[in-house]
Design goal:
With 776 residues, this protein is an alpha+beta fold. It is built from 22 helices and 26 strands. The strands form six sheets. The protein has a six-stranded antiparallel β-barrel with strand order 5-6-9-8-7-10. A four-stranded parallel beta sheet has the order 2-1-3-4. The two termini are 40 Å apart.
Length: 776
């Protein structure tokens, strides 16, 4: 007999828990057993993300038998899956599938894997919370209903193999709306005027000669206005008209929730949302941090006291300020504590570089949350100009006491954030200043910033869409389904004008700057925009941000036992299903078609739309006697922004550049990008080569370079055996024969291989069986 059987989800979690329990406890991973047995007996590779249905759908006799046998031998079965709704649903499924007796089954939860937390959980077991299970079931059923009903509709009305989802569709909508805001934005020029003054010696103090940097309180729209102002400044006198000093403070941010951890890890460490959650999962399962899916900012009394001791020990009493944060989210239903180190005295941990960096971030944020405010002194100086009513403003900031800033500074998503004031010399009212240099720089208003993964998570949370456990999978899903791409795109050069007043004369210069550079931003694809528009047209309620947020509130109500989940599903499904059937019958096929204009040569319409293989331009119509011509869009071109001229340029390819060795040299664009073709061989163009302008000389240069590369690739060939070659490959030399590759033994020198040696190696190499892939 087994005294106690503890069942958890993952092998890593099982290994950590096992360290803290005595010999009377046997710890097993439900996922680990199901995965291993399924692979061994059924040839099935189960995904890393544990889902209860894998137990249900697999062969119970083969897959679940071991866990059932262990459970029968145990006096008490402890189900220790995670404490959120997903974990509760897993616990319920395990109880049902393993036929566990309720009398000897205990449900235990803990938000950190420590000896104290596990012992406390065992001392205070509970039964499975059916309300939490129902809330998770409701989410799962509703999301599947939306997906199963909308996806076939999209296959028929837009394009095969598409999908839709309740949360993913509104996430795509946010990105599409932002992209259209950016495309519709028209930038306006203005002139920002800054000045560098020096304190006049006439003031008779130690500040004489020190620099003061200031900015004009007004911005000019035209270069004429700007020049007129600088001309007034040429003979002006500058005087300090007021000096205002105010104390200020900065307070630390609360400890991490799931969303704020995802945002900050993206800003500070460059981690994707899914990467952050994967690393955090490993830290939790190894007992380093508390549960990582939470929307609570609360810290336990024990955590606060240990953080306080660490702060006093490391920084001193004056750096300590105990804070108790309250969770503002009404729907906070995941864990009951913020993400923090399990042992705050551990500044560092063993683990991978990524785990160490994320742990350090969590440790610093936790410690900073219990530290004193940073004390500042902010100074604002107003500088009058004798020849005009305009005035300059100089701002300065002095850090009096660093407080929590000694440990941690929170990052922001504000790309247009102005730099804070610099240190100012001591100034008094009526002090005279000398004009060292006044510069006016042409600036341009900026469009709204495209979303990063971090800023999208922040927006979803603000709108009440999704929960801590859904942010990462939602963002991964919309990228995997190619509705959205995450890309870095280069900016464009732009000419700007600067006017400088120095020593009484004004000089004008033209400079260039790079604008529009986007780093790791989310862009909607053409198919993403077409699907979004179709759903917006026919399913207004599903795409409404308030609807998605209201659904989350209903899930919360179910979790608290205030609403019946089946009634909630029925209330949604009946009108939704009716709308799907109606749309299937009455709506037209949507290709996102847009008329660009007429082809000047044929007079036929030029349109852009979604085709079988993606976005394309079409000249002519299907009804014409002459077959329409088609061309795929290039990378970086979009259906909503492509112009008629750009569309017509796509039909200039393939083009013949000339001849080499009596054969044509042509350039075209294929599936893998632009290329040169000669004698039925293909050579890719380089990034700097434009297929529309590249010339014959450059094409020949690329062809010859390719030939040289091929020549160096061939180690040996055999006249008696055409097609048999000894080649240099990416992973070293190998034999190529009859469309198969053969590894050369280390004992053989490739350049010395004879025909007989090669054939012997080929004959001795066993035939490889084709790999068996599991059907998806």
């Amino acid at each position: 007999m087994i005294e106690n059987l503890v069942i958890v989800e993952s092998p890593a979690k099982a290994r950590t828990i096992e360290r803290f329990l005595g010999k009377d406890f046997v710890v097993k991973s439900s996922f680990g057993h199901v995965r291993d047995l399924a692979k061994k007996n059924l040839g099935i590779d189960i995904e890393n993300n544990f889902q209860p249905e894998y137990i249900v759908s697999a062969d119970k006799k083969k897959v679940v038998k071991e866990l059932k046998d262990l459970a029968k031998k145990a006096n008490t079965v402890w189900i220790a899956s995670d404490e959120d709704r997903e974990g509760e649903a897993i616990a319920w499924h395990l109880q049902e599938v393993l036929d566990l007796e309720k009398e000897k089954t205990r449900r235990i939860v803990f938000h950190e894997i420590t000896k104290e937390a596990i012992q406390h959980a065992i001392e205070h077991p509970r039964s499975i919370d059916v309300n939490l299970v129902n809330a998770q079931q409701a989410r799962r059923v509703l999301d599947r209903l939306v997906g199963f009903e909308l996806s076939p509709l999209l296959w028929k009305k837009v394009k095969p193999s598409l999908s839709a989802g309740r949360v993913q569709s509104v996430a795509v909508k946010l990105i599409v709306e932002r992209e259209r805001e950016v495309n519709a934005f028209r930038s306006n020029a203005y002139y920002r005027v800054t000045a560098t003054f020096t304190v006049a010696a006439a003031n008779n103090d130690t500040s004489a000669g020190q620099e003061v940097r200031a900015e004009l309180s007004k911005r000019f729209d035209t270069i004429e206005e700007t020049r007129a102002f600088l001309e007034k400044c040429a003979q002006a006198k500058f005087r300090v008209s007021s000096v205002e000093k105010k104390p200020g403070k900065k307070s630390p941010a609360p400890p991490f929730t799931t969303s704020t951890l995802q945002q900050e890890a993206s800003r500070k460490l460059g981690y994707s949302v899914s990467q952050t959650m994967s690393i955090a999962q490993r830290l939790y399962e190894s007992g380093q941090i508390t549960y990582m899916r939470t929307d609570s900012v609360n810290l336990s009394n024990l955590a606060i006291s240990t953080a306080s001791a660490e702060i006093k020990s490391s920084f001193g009493e004056k750096y300590l300020k105990v804070r108790k944060y309250a969770t503002k989210s009404k729907g906070a239903q995941e864990a009951h504590e913020a993400i923090r180190p399990t042992y705050i005295s551990n500044r560092t941990i063993n683990g991978s570089s990524q785990e160490q960096r994320l742990y350090e971030l969590i440790w610093k944020r936790t410690i900073a949350s219990q530290m004193s405010d940073a004390q500042l002194e902010r100074t604002t100086v107003k500088i009058d100009v004798s020849t005009t009513d305009e005035h300059f403003i100089a701002t300065g900031e002095v850090l009096i006491f660093d407080g929590f800033l000694k440990v941690y500074i929170e990052s922001t998503d504000d790309e247009n954030e102005e730099e804070t004031g610099s240190l100012l010399p001591p100034l008094r009212e009526n002090d005279q200043l000398n004009n060292k240099r006044i510069e006016a720089v042409q600036k341009f208003t900026l469009p709204p910033a495209r979303y990063t993964e971090a800023s999208l998570v922040k927006k979803l949370e603000e709108l009440g869409i999704g929960r801590p456990s859904t942010y990462a999978p939602t963002i991964s899903t919309i990228q995997n389904r190619e509705y959205v791409v995450k890309e870095t795109r280069p900016g464009q050069k732009r000419e700007i004008i600067t006017l400088t007043l120095q020593q009484g004369s004004i000089t004008e210069k033209k400079k260039t700057e790079t604008t529009g550079h986007e780093k790791q931003k989310l862009f909607p694809t053409d198919i993403g925009m077409v699907v979004n528009d179709f759903l917006e047209q026919y399913f207004v309620s599903i795409m409404n941000y308030n609807f998605t947020a209201d659904v989350e509130k209903k899930f919360d109500a179910i979790a608290m036992g205030k609403e019946d989940w089946t009634a909630m599903i029925s209330e949604f499904y009946d009108p939704f299903h009716k709308k799907v059937d109606e749309t299937m019958e009455t709506s037209e096929k949507s290709k996102g078609e847009r008329l660009l204009g007429e082809d000047p040569e044929s007079g036929k319409p030029v349109t852009v739309k979604i085709g079988r293989f993606g976005p394309m331009v079409q000249i002519g119509e299907a009804e014409d006697e002459e077959k329409p011509r088609f061309a795929s869009l290039l990378k970086g071109q979009g259906m909503e922004t492509i112009t008629l001229r750009e569309a017509l340029d796509l039909f200039k390819l393939p083009r013949t550049l000339g001849q080499l060795e009596g054969d044509d040299v042509t350039v075209a664009i294929g599936r893998y990008g632009p290329y040169v073709r000669h004698q039925n061989k293909f050579v890719s163009l380089q990034k700097e080569d434009d297929p529309y302008t590249v010339g014959l000389d450059r094409a020949i240069e690329l062809i010859m370079a390719k030939r040289e590369e091929e020549k160096n690739r061939i180690i040996r060939e055999f006249d008696d055996k055409p097609g048999l070659q000894v080649l240099n490959g990416k992973y070293g030399p190998y034999i190529a024969y009859d469309k198969k590759n053969y590894k050369i033994p280390k004992s053989k020198k490739p350049e010395e291989l004879t025909l007989e040696d090669c054939m012997e190696i080929i004959e001795k190499t066993p035939d490889r069986k084709p790999s068996r892939r599991r059907k998806s």
